[in-house]
Design goal:
Layout: H1 7-23, H2 26-35, H3 40-48, H4 67-80, H5 85-101, H6 104-115, E1 120-124, E2 140-144, E3 147-158, E4 165-172, H7 179-182, E5 183-189, E6 195-199, E7 210-221, E8 225-226, H8 232-268, E9 270-271, E10 274-275, H9 280-308, H10 314-339, H11 350-357, H12 367-377
Parallel strand pairs: 1-4
Antiparallel strand pairs: 2-3, 3-7, 4-5, 5-8, 6-7, 9-10
Helix pairs in contact: 1-4, 4-8, 5-6, 5-8, 8-9, 8-10, 9-10, 10-11, 10-12
Bound molecules: flavin-adenine dinucleotide.
Flavin-adenine dinucleotide (FAD) binds at residues 122-126, 131-132, 156-158, 202, 205, 210, 359, 362-366, 368-369, 372, 384.
Length: 384
Protein backbone atom coordinates (compact mmCIF):
# COMPACT_ATOMS: atom_id res chain seq x y z
CA UNK A 1 0.00 0.00 0.00
CA UNK A 2 1.42 3.37 -1.05
CA UNK A 3 -0.05 6.45 0.61
CA UNK A 4 2.24 8.97 -1.09
CA UNK A 5 1.30 11.26 -3.94
CA UNK A 6 3.60 11.21 -6.94
CA UNK A 7 6.06 14.00 -7.68
CA UNK A 8 3.79 15.18 -10.53
CA UNK A 9 0.81 15.30 -8.21
CA UNK A 10 2.77 17.34 -5.66
CA UNK A 11 3.78 19.75 -8.45
CA UNK A 12 0.18 20.05 -9.55
CA UNK A 13 -0.86 20.76 -5.98
CA UNK A 14 1.85 23.42 -5.69
CA UNK A 15 0.66 25.10 -8.91
CA UNK A 16 -2.89 25.38 -7.56
CA UNK A 17 -1.69 26.72 -4.18
CA UNK A 18 0.29 29.45 -5.95
CA UNK A 19 -2.55 30.25 -8.35
CA UNK A 20 -5.01 30.72 -5.51
CA UNK A 21 -2.57 32.79 -3.45
CA UNK A 22 -2.15 35.11 -6.43
CA UNK A 23 -5.75 35.35 -7.64
CA UNK A 24 -7.90 34.78 -4.56
CA UNK A 25 -6.33 36.50 -1.54
CA UNK A 26 -8.35 36.57 1.69
CA UNK A 27 -9.34 40.24 1.48
CA UNK A 28 -10.72 39.70 -2.03
CA UNK A 29 -12.67 36.62 -0.94
CA UNK A 30 -14.32 38.61 1.85
CA UNK A 31 -15.17 41.40 -0.58
CA UNK A 32 -16.69 39.05 -3.21
CA UNK A 33 -18.69 37.37 -0.47
CA UNK A 34 -20.03 40.67 0.82
CA UNK A 35 -20.88 41.86 -2.68
CA UNK A 36 -22.21 38.40 -3.61
CA UNK A 37 -20.21 38.74 -6.82
CA UNK A 38 -18.52 35.93 -8.71
CA UNK A 39 -14.89 36.74 -9.63
CA UNK A 40 -14.87 35.81 -13.34
CA UNK A 41 -11.16 36.70 -13.36
CA UNK A 42 -10.43 33.77 -11.02
CA UNK A 43 -12.33 31.40 -13.29
CA UNK A 44 -10.25 32.76 -16.18
CA UNK A 45 -7.12 31.98 -14.15
CA UNK A 46 -8.35 28.35 -13.83
CA UNK A 47 -8.70 28.28 -17.63
CA UNK A 48 -5.32 29.89 -18.28
CA UNK A 49 -3.60 27.40 -15.98
CA UNK A 50 -5.23 24.51 -17.89
CA UNK A 51 -7.14 23.25 -14.83
CA UNK A 52 -10.35 22.72 -16.80
CA UNK A 53 -8.50 20.53 -19.29
CA UNK A 54 -7.08 18.25 -16.62
CA UNK A 55 -9.62 15.39 -16.45
CA UNK A 56 -10.50 15.29 -20.15
CA UNK A 57 -8.80 12.84 -22.50
CA UNK A 58 -6.13 14.17 -24.85
CA UNK A 59 -8.27 13.38 -27.93
CA UNK A 60 -10.59 16.27 -26.98
CA UNK A 61 -7.88 18.69 -25.90
CA UNK A 62 -7.59 17.48 -22.32
CA UNK A 63 -4.61 16.45 -20.26
CA UNK A 64 -5.79 12.96 -19.28
CA UNK A 65 -5.47 13.46 -15.53
CA UNK A 66 -7.01 10.93 -13.15
CA UNK A 67 -9.87 11.46 -10.68
CA UNK A 68 -7.24 11.44 -7.93
CA UNK A 69 -5.29 14.25 -9.66
CA UNK A 70 -8.49 16.23 -9.98
CA UNK A 71 -9.40 15.54 -6.35
CA UNK A 72 -6.07 16.98 -5.28
CA UNK A 73 -6.75 20.13 -7.32
CA UNK A 74 -10.24 20.47 -5.85
CA UNK A 75 -8.81 19.97 -2.35
CA UNK A 76 -6.44 22.92 -2.80
CA UNK A 77 -9.03 25.16 -4.49
CA UNK A 78 -11.50 24.46 -1.70
CA UNK A 79 -8.89 25.01 0.95
CA UNK A 80 -9.09 28.63 -0.15
CA UNK A 81 -12.80 28.74 -1.05
CA UNK A 82 -15.37 26.00 -1.61
CA UNK A 83 -17.66 28.70 -3.04
CA UNK A 84 -15.52 30.10 -5.89
CA UNK A 85 -14.30 26.62 -6.81
CA UNK A 86 -17.91 25.42 -7.35
CA UNK A 87 -18.04 26.93 -10.86
CA UNK A 88 -14.96 24.88 -11.68
CA UNK A 89 -16.53 21.70 -10.33
CA UNK A 90 -19.86 22.28 -12.09
CA UNK A 91 -18.17 22.85 -15.44
CA UNK A 92 -15.90 19.84 -15.09
CA UNK A 93 -18.58 17.38 -13.95
CA UNK A 94 -21.10 18.42 -16.61
CA UNK A 95 -18.39 18.55 -19.28
CA UNK A 96 -17.35 15.00 -18.48
CA UNK A 97 -20.96 13.95 -18.99
CA UNK A 98 -20.91 15.51 -22.45
CA UNK A 99 -17.68 13.63 -23.13
CA UNK A 100 -19.08 10.30 -21.85
CA UNK A 101 -22.55 10.47 -23.35
CA UNK A 102 -22.27 12.93 -26.22
CA UNK A 103 -21.86 12.09 -29.91
CA UNK A 104 -18.63 12.92 -31.74
CA UNK A 105 -20.29 16.06 -33.12
CA UNK A 106 -21.48 17.15 -29.68
CA UNK A 107 -18.04 16.64 -28.15
CA UNK A 108 -16.47 18.61 -30.99
CA UNK A 109 -18.97 21.42 -30.52
CA UNK A 110 -19.15 21.78 -26.73
CA UNK A 111 -15.82 20.73 -25.26
CA UNK A 112 -13.54 23.28 -26.99
CA UNK A 113 -15.93 26.03 -25.86
CA UNK A 114 -15.83 24.72 -22.29
CA UNK A 115 -12.07 24.21 -22.14
CA UNK A 116 -11.34 27.64 -23.60
CA UNK A 117 -13.64 29.34 -21.07
CA UNK A 118 -16.09 30.54 -23.71
CA UNK A 119 -18.89 28.82 -21.79
CA UNK A 120 -19.40 27.33 -18.34
CA UNK A 121 -21.67 24.46 -17.42
CA UNK A 122 -23.99 24.15 -14.44
CA UNK A 123 -26.36 21.37 -13.48
CA UNK A 124 -30.14 21.71 -13.31
CA UNK A 125 -31.76 18.71 -11.67
CA UNK A 126 -33.64 19.92 -8.60
CA UNK A 127 -37.07 21.52 -8.75
CA UNK A 128 -39.54 22.78 -6.15
CA UNK A 129 -41.16 19.31 -5.88
CA UNK A 130 -38.12 17.23 -6.73
CA UNK A 131 -35.11 17.26 -4.44
CA UNK A 132 -34.04 13.88 -3.07
CA UNK A 133 -36.89 12.45 -5.15
CA UNK A 134 -35.22 13.29 -8.46
CA UNK A 135 -37.66 11.18 -10.47
CA UNK A 136 -40.46 13.59 -9.57
CA UNK A 137 -39.23 16.39 -11.85
CA UNK A 138 -41.99 18.17 -13.77
CA UNK A 139 -40.01 20.26 -16.28
CA UNK A 140 -41.15 18.97 -19.61
CA UNK A 141 -39.78 19.10 -23.15
CA UNK A 142 -41.95 18.48 -26.22
CA UNK A 143 -40.41 17.76 -29.61
CA UNK A 144 -41.30 20.34 -32.28
CA UNK A 145 -39.49 19.58 -35.55
CA UNK A 146 -35.78 19.99 -34.95
CA UNK A 147 -36.35 21.70 -31.60
CA UNK A 148 -37.71 20.91 -28.16
CA UNK A 149 -40.01 23.33 -26.37
CA UNK A 150 -39.11 23.32 -22.68
CA UNK A 151 -41.39 24.46 -19.88
CA UNK A 152 -40.87 24.23 -16.14
CA UNK A 153 -38.74 25.41 -13.27
CA UNK A 154 -35.39 24.46 -11.79
CA UNK A 155 -34.33 25.31 -8.27
CA UNK A 156 -31.00 25.68 -6.45
CA UNK A 157 -29.07 25.67 -9.74
CA UNK A 158 -25.54 26.61 -8.66
CA UNK A 159 -23.83 29.04 -11.03
CA UNK A 160 -26.76 29.35 -13.45
CA UNK A 161 -26.34 33.12 -13.62
CA UNK A 162 -22.61 33.21 -14.33
CA UNK A 163 -21.34 34.63 -17.60
CA UNK A 164 -22.16 32.34 -20.55
CA UNK A 165 -23.44 29.55 -18.36
CA UNK A 166 -25.12 26.61 -20.07
CA UNK A 167 -27.63 24.77 -17.90
CA UNK A 168 -27.29 21.00 -18.18
CA UNK A 169 -30.97 20.43 -17.51
CA UNK A 170 -32.80 17.20 -16.78
CA UNK A 171 -36.32 17.22 -18.18
CA UNK A 172 -39.16 14.79 -18.77
CA UNK A 173 -39.80 13.88 -22.40
CA UNK A 174 -42.23 11.07 -21.66
CA UNK A 175 -44.52 11.65 -18.71
CA UNK A 176 -45.97 8.15 -18.97
CA UNK A 177 -42.65 6.30 -18.74
CA UNK A 178 -40.80 5.42 -15.55
CA UNK A 179 -38.33 8.24 -14.86
CA UNK A 180 -35.41 6.00 -15.70
CA UNK A 181 -36.78 5.92 -19.23
CA UNK A 182 -38.66 9.19 -19.59
CA UNK A 183 -35.92 11.61 -18.50
CA UNK A 184 -33.74 13.51 -20.97
CA UNK A 185 -30.58 15.59 -20.57
CA UNK A 186 -30.62 18.82 -22.60
CA UNK A 187 -28.31 21.85 -22.73
CA UNK A 188 -29.96 25.27 -22.37
CA UNK A 189 -28.07 28.58 -22.57
CA UNK A 190 -28.87 30.81 -19.63
CA UNK A 191 -29.76 33.68 -21.98
CA UNK A 192 -32.05 31.84 -24.39
CA UNK A 193 -35.44 33.53 -24.91
CA UNK A 194 -37.84 32.23 -22.25
CA UNK A 195 -35.14 31.61 -19.61
CA UNK A 196 -35.47 33.75 -16.49
CA UNK A 197 -33.07 33.61 -13.59
CA UNK A 198 -33.37 34.72 -9.98
CA UNK A 199 -30.36 34.63 -7.66
CA UNK A 200 -31.48 33.31 -4.29
CA UNK A 201 -30.47 34.75 -0.92
CA UNK A 202 -28.68 31.77 0.56
CA UNK A 203 -26.69 31.13 3.73
CA UNK A 204 -23.63 30.09 1.73
CA UNK A 205 -22.26 29.94 -1.82
CA UNK A 206 -22.80 33.65 -2.08
CA UNK A 207 -20.33 34.32 -4.88
CA UNK A 208 -21.13 31.51 -7.33
CA UNK A 209 -24.79 31.89 -6.46
CA UNK A 210 -27.70 29.50 -6.24
CA UNK A 211 -30.48 30.26 -8.71
CA UNK A 212 -34.09 29.68 -9.47
CA UNK A 213 -34.52 29.09 -13.20
CA UNK A 214 -37.85 29.64 -14.93
CA UNK A 215 -38.26 28.05 -18.36
CA UNK A 216 -41.15 29.29 -20.46
CA UNK A 217 -41.54 27.97 -24.01
CA UNK A 218 -37.78 27.81 -24.44
CA UNK A 219 -36.93 26.61 -27.95
CA UNK A 220 -33.89 24.38 -27.69
CA UNK A 221 -32.32 22.75 -30.78
CA UNK A 222 -32.75 18.99 -30.64
CA UNK A 223 -29.03 18.43 -31.21
CA UNK A 224 -28.52 19.66 -27.65
CA UNK A 225 -29.90 16.44 -26.21
CA UNK A 226 -27.00 14.51 -24.67
CA UNK A 227 -27.27 10.75 -24.34
CA UNK A 228 -30.37 10.51 -26.55
CA UNK A 229 -34.02 11.12 -25.72
CA UNK A 230 -34.86 9.11 -22.60
CA UNK A 231 -31.17 8.67 -21.73
CA UNK A 232 -31.13 11.27 -18.95
CA UNK A 233 -31.10 8.90 -16.01
CA UNK A 234 -27.89 7.19 -17.17
CA UNK A 235 -26.23 10.60 -17.70
CA UNK A 236 -27.27 11.73 -14.25
CA UNK A 237 -26.12 8.64 -12.39
CA UNK A 238 -22.78 8.26 -14.18
CA UNK A 239 -21.94 11.87 -13.45
CA UNK A 240 -23.13 11.94 -9.86
CA UNK A 241 -20.75 9.26 -8.61
CA UNK A 242 -17.72 11.00 -10.09
CA UNK A 243 -18.97 14.33 -8.71
CA UNK A 244 -19.43 12.89 -5.23
CA UNK A 245 -15.98 11.31 -5.21
CA UNK A 246 -14.16 14.45 -6.32
CA UNK A 247 -16.28 16.87 -4.30
CA UNK A 248 -15.45 14.88 -1.16
CA UNK A 249 -11.97 16.30 -1.67
CA UNK A 250 -13.56 19.76 -1.70
CA UNK A 251 -15.12 19.02 1.68
CA UNK A 252 -11.72 17.92 2.98
CA UNK A 253 -10.08 21.07 1.58
CA UNK A 254 -12.63 23.23 3.39
CA UNK A 255 -12.15 21.20 6.57
CA UNK A 256 -8.37 21.54 6.25
CA UNK A 257 -8.73 25.32 6.09
CA UNK A 258 -10.87 25.23 9.22
CA UNK A 259 -8.27 23.20 11.13
CA UNK A 260 -5.43 25.47 9.94
CA UNK A 261 -7.34 28.58 11.03
CA UNK A 262 -8.31 27.11 14.40
CA UNK A 263 -4.76 25.96 15.15
CA UNK A 264 -3.16 29.30 14.31
CA UNK A 265 -5.80 31.15 16.31
CA UNK A 266 -5.40 28.84 19.33
CA UNK A 267 -1.63 29.48 19.28
CA UNK A 268 -2.00 33.26 19.17
CA UNK A 269 -5.04 34.04 21.27
CA UNK A 270 -4.02 34.61 24.89
CA UNK A 271 -6.45 34.42 27.79
CA UNK A 272 -5.57 34.05 31.46
CA UNK A 273 -1.95 34.71 30.48
CA UNK A 274 -1.58 31.75 28.12
CA UNK A 275 -2.49 30.74 24.56
CA UNK A 276 -5.96 29.19 24.58
CA UNK A 277 -4.53 26.10 22.79
CA UNK A 278 -2.74 25.20 26.02
CA UNK A 279 -6.10 24.66 27.75
CA UNK A 280 -6.83 20.98 27.52
CA UNK A 281 -10.43 21.63 26.44
CA UNK A 282 -9.24 23.49 23.32
CA UNK A 283 -6.23 21.24 22.66
CA UNK A 284 -8.45 18.15 22.69
CA UNK A 285 -10.93 19.76 20.29
CA UNK A 286 -8.06 20.46 17.91
CA UNK A 287 -6.75 16.91 18.30
CA UNK A 288 -10.18 15.50 17.45
CA UNK A 289 -10.51 17.84 14.48
CA UNK A 290 -7.18 16.81 13.01
CA UNK A 291 -7.83 13.10 13.57
CA UNK A 292 -11.24 13.24 11.92
CA UNK A 293 -9.85 15.25 9.03
CA UNK A 294 -7.19 12.61 8.41
CA UNK A 295 -9.89 9.91 8.42
CA UNK A 296 -11.91 11.94 5.89
CA UNK A 297 -8.90 12.39 3.64
CA UNK A 298 -8.15 8.68 3.66
CA UNK A 299 -11.74 7.82 2.66
CA UNK A 300 -11.55 10.45 -0.07
CA UNK A 301 -8.20 9.47 -1.53
CA UNK A 302 -9.24 5.81 -1.54
CA UNK A 303 -12.55 6.54 -3.32
CA UNK A 304 -10.78 8.62 -5.95
CA UNK A 305 -7.99 6.09 -6.30
CA UNK A 306 -10.64 3.45 -7.08
CA UNK A 307 -12.44 5.76 -9.54
CA UNK A 308 -9.09 6.49 -11.22
CA UNK A 309 -8.68 2.75 -11.76
CA UNK A 310 -12.22 2.42 -13.13
CA UNK A 311 -13.16 0.10 -10.28
CA UNK A 312 -16.69 -0.18 -8.97
CA UNK A 313 -16.60 2.16 -5.99
CA UNK A 314 -20.18 3.15 -5.23
CA UNK A 315 -19.87 2.12 -1.59
CA UNK A 316 -16.51 3.84 -1.02
CA UNK A 317 -17.65 7.01 -2.82
CA UNK A 318 -20.76 7.15 -0.66
CA UNK A 319 -18.74 6.64 2.53
CA UNK A 320 -16.48 9.52 1.49
CA UNK A 321 -19.33 11.86 0.51
CA UNK A 322 -21.28 11.18 3.71
CA UNK A 323 -18.34 11.40 6.08
CA UNK A 324 -16.54 14.41 4.59
CA UNK A 325 -19.65 16.55 4.13
CA UNK A 326 -20.58 16.09 7.78
CA UNK A 327 -16.93 16.54 8.74
CA UNK A 328 -16.67 19.96 7.09
CA UNK A 329 -19.86 21.22 8.73
CA UNK A 330 -18.92 19.75 12.15
CA UNK A 331 -15.38 21.11 12.10
CA UNK A 332 -16.51 24.58 11.00
CA UNK A 333 -18.87 24.61 13.95
CA UNK A 334 -16.05 23.62 16.31
CA UNK A 335 -13.80 26.22 14.69
CA UNK A 336 -16.29 28.96 15.56
CA UNK A 337 -16.36 27.72 19.16
CA UNK A 338 -12.57 27.85 19.36
CA UNK A 339 -12.47 31.39 17.99
CA UNK A 340 -15.27 32.64 20.25
CA UNK A 341 -16.77 35.95 19.09
CA UNK A 342 -14.11 36.35 16.41
CA UNK A 343 -15.37 33.13 14.84
CA UNK A 344 -18.67 34.83 14.08
CA UNK A 345 -17.19 38.01 12.69
CA UNK A 346 -16.96 38.62 8.94
CA UNK A 347 -13.44 40.06 9.32
CA UNK A 348 -12.28 36.48 9.96
CA UNK A 349 -12.78 33.51 7.66
CA UNK A 350 -14.33 31.01 10.04
CA UNK A 351 -17.87 32.34 9.69
CA UNK A 352 -17.60 31.92 5.90
CA UNK A 353 -16.64 28.29 6.39
CA UNK A 354 -19.53 27.79 8.79
CA UNK A 355 -21.93 29.13 6.13
CA UNK A 356 -20.37 27.46 3.11
CA UNK A 357 -19.94 24.10 4.83
CA UNK A 358 -23.64 23.85 5.56
CA UNK A 359 -24.56 23.00 1.98
CA UNK A 360 -22.17 20.02 1.89
CA UNK A 361 -24.63 17.66 3.62
CA UNK A 362 -27.48 18.75 1.32
CA UNK A 363 -26.17 19.39 -2.20
CA UNK A 364 -25.47 16.44 -4.55
CA UNK A 365 -27.54 14.21 -2.25
CA UNK A 366 -28.37 14.72 1.42
CA UNK A 367 -26.72 12.80 4.24
CA UNK A 368 -29.95 10.89 4.75
CA UNK A 369 -30.02 9.67 1.16
CA UNK A 370 -26.33 8.68 1.40
CA UNK A 371 -27.17 6.62 4.51
CA UNK A 372 -30.12 5.06 2.66
CA UNK A 373 -27.77 4.07 -0.15
CA UNK A 374 -25.13 2.59 2.17
CA UNK A 375 -27.81 0.69 4.11
CA UNK A 376 -29.15 -0.64 0.79
CA UNK A 377 -25.68 -1.80 -0.19
CA UNK A 378 -25.52 -3.52 3.18
CA UNK A 379 -28.65 -5.47 2.26
CA UNK A 380 -31.23 -3.32 4.08
CA UNK A 381 -34.24 -2.79 1.85
CA UNK A 382 -35.47 0.74 1.06
CA UNK A 383 -37.47 2.12 -1.85
CA UNK A 384 -35.10 5.13 -2.32
C1 LIG B 1 -26.31 25.31 -1.75
C2 LIG B 1 -27.00 24.32 -2.61
C3 LIG B 1 -26.62 24.17 -3.93
C4 LIG B 1 -27.27 23.27 -4.76
N1 LIG B 1 -26.92 23.18 -6.06
C5 LIG B 1 -27.65 22.42 -6.91
C6 LIG B 1 -27.39 22.41 -8.30
O1 LIG B 1 -26.44 23.04 -8.78
N2 LIG B 1 -28.21 21.71 -9.11
C7 LIG B 1 -29.26 20.99 -8.64
O2 LIG B 1 -29.94 20.36 -9.42
N3 LIG B 1 -29.53 20.96 -7.31
C8 LIG B 1 -28.76 21.67 -6.44
N4 LIG B 1 -29.04 21.67 -5.11
C9 LIG B 1 -30.20 20.95 -4.64
C10 LIG B 1 -29.89 19.73 -3.81
O3 LIG B 1 -29.41 18.68 -4.62
C11 LIG B 1 -31.15 19.38 -3.05
O4 LIG B 1 -31.36 20.43 -2.12
C12 LIG B 1 -31.07 18.05 -2.35
O5 LIG B 1 -31.07 17.01 -3.27
C13 LIG B 1 -32.21 17.86 -1.36
O6 LIG B 1 -33.44 18.18 -1.93
P1 LIG B 1 -34.47 19.15 -1.18
O7 LIG B 1 -33.72 20.36 -0.80
O8 LIG B 1 -35.66 19.29 -2.01
O9 LIG B 1 -34.81 18.40 0.15
P2 LIG B 1 -35.86 17.18 0.31
O10 LIG B 1 -35.55 16.11 -0.68
O11 LIG B 1 -37.22 17.70 0.36
O12 LIG B 1 -35.43 16.64 1.73
C14 LIG B 1 -35.78 17.31 2.94
C15 LIG B 1 -35.27 16.44 4.10
O13 LIG B 1 -35.89 15.13 4.03
C16 LIG B 1 -34.89 14.14 3.94
N5 LIG B 1 -35.34 13.07 3.08
C17 LIG B 1 -35.90 13.14 1.84
N6 LIG B 1 -36.12 11.92 1.36
C18 LIG B 1 -35.72 11.05 2.28
C19 LIG B 1 -35.69 9.64 2.38
N7 LIG B 1 -36.12 8.85 1.40
N8 LIG B 1 -35.17 9.08 3.50
C20 LIG B 1 -34.71 9.85 4.51
N9 LIG B 1 -34.72 11.19 4.49
C21 LIG B 1 -35.20 11.78 3.39
C22 LIG B 1 -33.68 14.85 3.36
O14 LIG B 1 -32.47 14.16 3.68
C23 LIG B 1 -33.77 16.21 4.01
O15 LIG B 1 -33.22 16.16 5.30
C24 LIG B 1 -28.35 22.51 -4.25
C25 LIG B 1 -28.70 22.63 -2.91
C26 LIG B 1 -28.04 23.52 -2.10
C27 LIG B 1 -28.45 23.63 -0.65
Amino acid sequence: MDFAFTEEQEMLRDTVVKLMAKHAPREALRKWNKERRYPEEVYQAFIDAGLLRLPFPEEVGGLGASALDLALVVFELSRVTTDVSMAFGGSVFCGLNVYRKGTEAQRAHWLPKLLSGEIKFCIGISEPDAGSDVGNIHTYAVRDGDHYIVNGQKLWTTGAGLKNSVICAYVKTDRGAHYRKGMTHILIDNDMPGVELRKLDMLGRRTVGTYEVFLKDVRVPADRVIGGEGGGWECLMGGLQYERAVSSAGNCGGAQAVVDLAVSYARERVQFGQPIGSFQAIGHMLADMETELEAGKLLTWRANWLVSRKRDALREITHAKLYTSELYARLANMGVQIMGGYGMNEEYDMERHLRDSRSATIAAGTSQTQRNLIANLMGMKSKT
